[in-house]
Amino acid sequence: MTMQKLKQFFKENWVLILSLIYIISPIDIIPGDLATGIGLIDDLGVLLFTTIYLLVRFIIDNKEDKESL
Q: How many CA atoms lie within 13 A of 54 on its CB side?
């Protein structure tokens, strides 16, 4: 993979990459030690935000593709 393709990949998928890093990392905004289950709220929030972002991006990309035909 060339450096240009790698830069393009990171530019297009930065939200997905950062979300994955946050969910995997042991550092959380809401610590899991406070109470069982509460520590997962921030991870679920990031997952929800990422899903909504990707869905909106998918819809916009498909709409642009249809308009270009």
A: 12
DSSP one-letter string for 5-57? HHHHHHHHSHHHHHHHHHHHSS--SS-TTSSTTGGGHHHHHHHHHHHHHHHHH
**In which domain, by residue range, is 12 found?**
3-68
Domain total of the chain? 1
For residues 47 and 23, is the Cβ–Cβ distance under 8 A?
yes
Stated pTM of the model: 0.73
Is residue 59's pLDDT more than 90? yes
Residues near 46 by Cβ (< 8 Å), separated by ≥ 6?
19, 22, 23
